[in-house]
Design a protein that fits this description.
With 357 residues, the chain is an alpha/beta fold. The chain has a 7-stranded mixed sheet with strand order 1-2-9-6-5-3-4, with helices on both faces. It has a two-stranded antiparallel ribbon with strand order 7-8. The chain contains 14 helices and 11 strands. Helix 3 (77-89) crosses helix 4 (104-116), helix 6 (173-188) packs across helix 8 (209-229) and helix 9 (244-254) packs across helix 10 (261-276). It folds into 2 domains: 2-170, Rossmann fold (3-Layer(aba) Sandwich); 181-354, Dehydroquinate synthase-like - alpha domain (Dehydroquinate synthase-like, alpha domain, Up-down Bundle).
Length: 357
């Protein structure tokens, strides 16, 4: 098992590998022993598959369990309030602790609940997807608003991240595809050699557990280094949003959960690569096609339908469009793009994709 330290508002460890939950009985026993209530917030799909697996590591404690919807539909005011109601009904206090057990959406919701319940209680991230290697680290928590993704949230760091890679074996192909999008995003903003290795993958199902863990460790290390430098996204942390300006617009336009986050990010990265004039655009589009990302979606959505969402992007200011672009691999920057240029680039990308699919 590997571990990485994140030097944020309070330092914490990310543990990666099969058997990570063994640490409940060792490293994190004092934290659980000190809690008057321990509450697991799990998404319903993960609970069905893996809840008993988790509870087998927690037999020394009395555990409360709340299940919430799986995926983006959980990131709603209704779910947020239901979580608070559950905590109150279970007589939780500032001495209670939450365990966020699920994918990125579950971690976002549970983290937001932890940050706001009685003005903040501790929580531990227990990610169960590849995508969550990104969202579980760094302390961003949020729910969605009908006018934009992740518009209501906080920066609130977990006490630890226990990433048991054995749970990844049950992920369906769509979730693997979604998660690998964030892995390759981390490569684009950090390392040419690693990017080339990822672009050579033509079938995610052939990845060994060892190789997948190695890629996840690299991705987490990239994110941890950026978070340590800019925890509250005043500068370089914005680079982690490479591909996300268009991605969030697509998710908002289509309806949250209609497309996976990672699929949207791949389309967003294609757009950002075109705006950047990046040499890897053609290769990346081919990689996306081979690995069954829904490139055809851009042909079905007009730019004008996405523009209002992009203007509300958290990087934008005064209605101007700001994108994370690349000078070259490993050299991201934020730049303003006027509407005319943004429209022309979108139309060009649609045509280019049409020649490939």
């Amino acid at each position: 098992m590997k571990q990485l330290q994140v030097e944020a508002d309070h330092p914490y460890l990310v543990h990666i590998g099969a058997g990570a939950f063994d640490l409940f009985a060792d490293t994190y026993r004092p934290l659980l022993d000190a809690a008057d209530q321990i509450v697991v917030i799990a998404d319903e799909k993960v609970a069905e598959l893996h809840l008993q697996y988790l509870l087998n590591y927690l037999t020394d404690w009395d555990i409360r369990v709340l299940t919430i919807p799986a995926g983006e539909s959980a990131k709603s005011v209704e779910t947020f309030m239901a979580c608070h109601s559950f905590l109150l009904s279970e007589n939780c206090s500032r001495n209670s602790i939450l365990l966020a057990f699920g994918g990125g959406a579950t971690g976002d919701v549970a983290g937001f609940v932890a940050s706001t319940f009685m003005r903040g209680i501790p929580f531990i991230q227990l990610p169960t997807t590849i995508l969550a290697h990104d969202s579980a680290v760094g302390g961003k928590t949020a729910i969605n608003h009908e006018l934009g993704k992740n518009m209501i949230g906080t920066f609130y760091q977990p006490k630890a991240v226990l990433y048991d890679s054995a749970l990844l074996n049950t992920l369906p192909p769509g979730e693997v595809r979604s998660g690998m999008a964030e892995v390759i995003k981390h490569a684009f903003i950090s390392n040419e050699q690693w990017l080339s290795e990822l672009l050579a993958i033509e079938d995610f199902s052939l990845l060994t557990e060892e190789d997948l863990n190695r890629h996840l460790e690299k991705g987490i290390a990239v994110k941890a280094a950026i978070v340590e430098e800019d925890e509250f996204e005043g500068g370089v942390r914005k680079y982690l949003n490479f591909g996300h300006t268009l991605a969030h617009a697509l998710e908002g336009n289509l309806g949250y959960g209609k497309i996976t986050h990672g699929e949207a990010v791949v389309l967003g990265m294609s757009y950002a690569l075109l705006l950047s004039g990046h040499k890897k655009l053609d290769e990346f589009i081919q990689w996306a096609k081979v690995n069954d990302y829904p490139l055809n979606l851009l042909q079905e959505i007009q730019f004008e339908a996405l523009l209002p969402y992009m203007k509300k992007d958290k990087k934008s200011s005064r209605g101007e469009l700001n994108f994370v672009l690349l000078e070259q691999t490993g050299q991201p920057y934020v730049d303003k793009v006027d509407e005319q240029r943004a429209f022309a680039a979108y139309e060009k990308l649609v045509l280019q994709i049409g020649e490939v699919i």
